[in-house]
User: What shape does this take?
Amino acid sequence: MTRELPRGKDPGSPFVMFKKKKRVLNEDIPEIVRSSGLRHIAYIMDGNGRWATSRSLPRELGHSAGAKNFKEIVRYSKNIGVRYVTVYAFSTENWKRPQREVSAIMKLLDQYIDEASLEDEIEFLFIGDRENVDPRIAERLTSLEKLTAGRSFRLNIAFNYGGRDEIVHAVNKAISAGCTEISEKIISSNVYTCDCPDPDLIIRTGAEYRISNFLMWQSAYSELYFSEKMWPEFKPQDVDSAVIEFSKRKRRFGGV
Ligand code: FPP
Assistant: This one.
């Protein structure tokens, strides 16, 4: 795990001291994850655009940096013992963005599917409305899911996803299956993530303090953690901080 952290070259530099301190901290993190019952982290990867514009770069480069960071953070979350990760990659509202930016995100997703098929421990699930997606991409998502089914770590990628849309979809699915009375149990068993526990922790980067239609049903009792950092700057050390904060929270699930 310490391999994930930046390496300093000068043994006397303060950076190396920082690294040593983090290494000790890191060694505790898997146990903190285990003992705090942290199984599922969901990430709202916000701030790619602002990260890029603050560097006078086009927004598309912010998404490229965001995609690179996404891979690092997913790998790190898996390494510390989290069993499920969900990321918000593209919302049902994101189609409103300039065509150039939408195309850049689609291209990153397309490239990622190629890389993802080489992963050997990740089971992929794409959550969201697949009917209104380019059929070529939709077909690739389905193939990747089939190829990776049953693997030990689950990565849910929310793509063309909206939380309200998901609830409507779940209700309609239940009705189509002959259901005549909706209950919480029926909705829970028809949302896209029906085979995962609800997220224990939702982390949002980018100094915005809202849920933005993400996992509306599943987040009822999730702990929320907000980071001022833009997504491309959110690093494994920041995941550690969120995990430690999570372990201090008292989860009562409506009880006392
Ligand atoms: C929010 O930042 C981010 C998105 C809408 C897209 C997230 C996409 C990626 C991280 C890359 C592609 C992902 C995969 C799975 C390959 P923003 O653009 O809203 O940032 P801003 O608030 O600063 O404008």
Summary: The beta strands are 40-44, 84-91, 122-127, 153-161, 201-204, 223-226. The mean pLDDT is 91. Residues 14-35 form the longest helix (22 residues). Residues 221 and 255 are 12 Å apart (CA to CA).
